[in-house]
Amino acid sequence: MSFYEEVEIEDMTYLPATQEYTYPCPCGDVFAISLEELWDGEDVGLCASCTLRIKVVFEEGDLPELEELEEEEEEGEGAKEAGEGAREAGEGAAEAGEGAAEAGEGAAEAVAKLAV
Ligand SMILES: [Zn+2]
């Protein structure tokens, strides 16, 4: 894979509205890569109008925090996480139930000892 250029992320333009980094392409359009892709370890900026691409040089420490954009996809992930939370709560309840069962056994043993 060959790149038109290696570009330091400081030399790119950040667009907070779309959370994208852009860099001028010689064809007149811009190379673009989203902040989310950068956080995912992607480092290839593509131009929408031609086949050129750039390699973005960055450290994760250079990146701004990824903010949740309101997209259906991410809402779906939120719902999934809520579901996992509910499942974990269910597991906690099951463990509490086991604890209660053990306490019950202890009480039965105590009664048995008293009966002796
Ligand atoms: Zn281009």
Automatic annotation (TrEMBL):
Query: Locations of Low complexity compositional bias?
Result: 91-110
Keywords from UniProt, A to Z, are: Iron, Metal-binding
* Pathway terms, separated by semicolons: Protein modification; peptidyl-diphthamide biosynthesis
Query: Cross-referenced PROSITE patterns, in alphabetical order?
Result: DPH_MB
Its recorded reaction(s) are:
2 [3Fe-4S](0)-[protein] + 2 Fe(2+)-[Dph3] + NADH = 2 [4Fe-4S](1+)-[protein] + 2 [Dph3] + NAD(+) + H(+); [3Fe-4S](1+)-[protein] + Fe(2+)-[Dph3] = [3Fe-4S](0)-[protein] + Fe(3+)-[Dph3]
Q: Which residues form the DPH-type MB domain?
A: 3-59
Q: Positions of the region Disordered?
A: 66-116
List compositional bias (Basic and acidic residues) regions by residue number. 77-90
Source domain of life: Eukaryota
Instruction: List where Acidic residues composition bias occurs.
Output: 66-76
Can you tell me which family this protein belongs to? Belongs to the DPH3 family.
Q: What is this protein called?
A: Diphthamide biosynthesis protein 3
